[in-house]
Every structure is written in structure tokens, then in C-alpha cells.
Amino acid sequence: MVTLVAVAGAVRGWDCVCNPIECEPLEPSGCPGLGIIVWDPCRCCKVCARTVGEDCGDFRGTCEPGLKCYEGSCAPIT
């Protein structure tokens, strides 16, 4: 029972709170790597896609094209 409560609490901590007014303007030139802009995990704001070596997955972000999220880090597709 204790485990169930702990897991349920952890899941609640990942809820999205979206306020598009708080999203910062973003241009591709302001992004590293290929300069790709994607939606954040909540689909609220636009953010830079992650590039080689950056954290990815879940709420950490999406890798840019040509990369995959491998063990929590963006790596080239081989």
C-alpha cells in the first residue's frame, strides 16, 4: 500500500501546468545543433530540440532529427 501511494504521488509530480503567455519567443538561430524547434512535453511552449549528448526523454525533451534518445541522452542513429 505504501508503494502505491508513493508511485501515485510521483506521477502527480509530472502534471503539466501550461500558461502559453509565459512561453518565451524562440527562433531557430537560438537553438544549438540543427536549430530545430519542437513542442515541449506538455505541448504548451516551443523549445529547442535536444542535440548530441543532451538529456532527453519524458519531460527532458525530444532529440533533433537524426538522433535518438538512448539511455536518457541524445545519440546519433547508427
TrEMBL record:
Stretches assigned to the IGFBP N-terminal domain: 12-78
Primary location: secreted
GO cellular component, one term: extracellular region
UniProt-listed Pfam families: IGFBP (PF00219)
The organism of origin for this protein: Danaus plexippus plexippus
GO biological process: regulation of cell growth; regulation of signal transduction
InterPro entries for this protein: Growth_fac_rcpt_cys_sf, IGFBP-like, IGFBP_rP_mac25
Keyword Endoplasmic reticulum in annotation: no
PANTHER family tied to this protein: CYSTEINE-RICH MOTOR NEURON 1 PROTEIN-LIKE, INSULIN-LIKE GROWTH FACTOR BINDING PROTEIN-RELATED
Localization annotation: Secreted
GO molecular function, one term: insulin-like growth factor binding
The protein's name in its UniProt record: Neuroparsin
Origin: domain of life: Eukaryota
Keywords: Disulfide bond, Secreted, Signal
UniProt keyword Signal, yes or no: yes
